[in-house]
Amino acid sequence: MTGPSAWLATRTSERTLARLVLVFAAGFVVVGSGVAWYVGSVGLSMGAMAYDSDDRTVVIEESERAAFTTHYDEDDEVGWCLYGTSNETHVRIDDVVPAAPVSQGPERVTFTCLPETAGQLLAGENAALLGTVHSHPGHDESELSGIDIALFGRLSPLVKVMGVYTDADGPAFFTTGSMTNPLDVRVVGDAAEARWDRGQRNRSNRSLNGSAGPAVRDRPR
Predict the structure, then answer these.
(1) Is 97:116 a contact under the CB 8 Å cutoff?
(2) Could you tell me how far CA 138 lies from the centroid of its own chain?
(3) Looking at the structure, do residues 77 and 145 belong to the same domain, yes or no?
(4) CATH code assigned at 95
(5) Domain assignment of residue 127, yes or no
(6) 129/84 Cα distance (integer angstroms)
(7) In a domain? residue 122
(8) Regions of the chain short of the pLDDT cut 70
(9) How far is CA 190 from CA 63, 199, 201, in A?
């Protein structure tokens, strides 16, 4: 009985056979590289998850934080695109833009942030994509699911922050250096900043009166 290789050799020229071998070899390399990248990126994110060593603080305006509540859906997951900057101590979110879904349902939403980024460019706004946030309707805690962690591992070369929003817990922001414990958040501007200023003044008054009052903390999530 003739094997597949012998059968193919009798029906193709040497040049065609060589081309087929090259195509199959290239395909094998591409698929193998893709699998290695997928497994490696997930492995890196899972390894980083064990440390929770990212102690940076997220800074966001009160008006931008309100975008999560405004565009929340009780029935289906929704997404937001985050634009801003980051350094060794802070992650600054300048713009929170609702994302146009590619697909959407109660337990999953898919979006790309491509049209949102184009819109930022056309409007002359910050178009540096910092990360994304998606909602978990019906959940009480804003935390990454197992699927979120695996996806974040693959997207980590492109996005620095992945957030989760729930109606009960508000937005929580994670990085590959802190996947189980969210980053601290400081809300600034408008009413939030006014409350922070009042707290600072109250602390100063207590100090002048000789009272050791509690330290003023940033507004919780």
Answers:
(1) yes
(2) 20
(3) yes
(4) 3.40.140.10
(5) yes
(6) 7
(7) yes
(8) 1-51, 190-221
(9) 8, 15, 17
> Any bridge partners for residue 188, and if so which?
61
Note down the domain range covering 9: 4-49
Contact 126, 94 (CB under 8 A): yes
Give dist(CA 49, CA 144) in Å, integer.
11
Helices marked H in the chain: 4-11, 14-49, 62-70, 114-122, 146-155, 190-208
* 2-16: pLDDT as tens digits: 555 555 456 556 655
Same domain, residue pair 94 and 22 = no
Burial class of residue 182 (count of CB atoms within 10 Å of its CB; 0-12, 13-18, 19+): buried
The helix/strand/coil state of 130 is strand
**150 in a structural domain:** yes
- Residue 195: strand, helix, or coil: helix
pLDDT at 209: 42
pTM of structure: 0.66
Q: Are residues 92 and 133 located together in one domain of the fold?
A: yes
Tell me whether residue 138 is in a domain: yes
CA–CA distance, 169 with 109 (Å, rounded to integer):
19
